[in-house]
Give the backbone structure.
Amino acid sequence: MSSNVFSGSFGSIFKHRRTNSPKYPEENATLELLKSSILVAFSGALRIHLAFLLLHIQSSILTCVAGGLIIYTVYTLDRALGSEEDTVNRTELNGSNKKIGLAVSILAFIIGTCILAVEEMLLLAFIPFITGYLYSKGIKIGRFALKLKGGLGIKNLVVGLTWGIFIAGLAGSGCGNLVPVVLVFIFFGVKLFINSAIYDFKDIKGDTLAGIRTLPVSLGARKTRNLLLSMHLFSHMVIGIALIHGALAFEPFIVLYSFVCGLICIQKFTNSENAEFSSRKLERTVLVDGESTSILGLRMVAVSLIA
């Protein structure tokens, strides 16, 4: 018997024993909870690096890492706290150990805030954290109650404003001119607004049951698609003009790739299909969450070829 066959047999026995364990579903769901935000955190860290490039400022690896940890904290915390729509939209997280998710989120937040505190940007760490809590759970003091979730497009607006300010703030903290920082905020704020709306199309069922008035739920697919397309064209027109006039670093490859990729995503993933195949999920993940990785990878190749 070959070693490959033995390894495969042993792996099958081990897997069988694990799946028969009463704790296996909980462990599996907890693992899904912990890893569900890794890609969006990594993508966010790379977006901060892209913001440094557009501002023509030397990128700080520690700032990007800290930003990624804060992003991981906010999204993992949101999923650990749980919400009505997630029982439908994220069934793989049902039964997960929320305490472990909360503990890991707090640890990531502490490390991220410590790094930003050393770099004198501590306030920026709390903006997405507080906003994320107000969105997920809200606060109630006597008769006063504030919760950001539920209004028409509020979810997308919160995502765009919060992460646009966060990314532009981290990258532009040492920038003496406010204009390029505002332009970077517009670029990433609009992009993340659009990306969150694209993901809303796959969550229509859960959002409808929870009474959350996302854009696809309230406006329908066609009107939402037209809105996102208009925002996409406007933001890239503004950034294109800024590049031409020297208000931002001359990075045409970043803007051009973002423009083309955004058009593809808006046209391809803004429908309300009930059934979704794994290949489509992978394609959306690569094009939407993996956009910053693709941009930087192709930019490195382009720069090396030009050099």
Remarks:
- The chain has a mean pLDDT of 81.
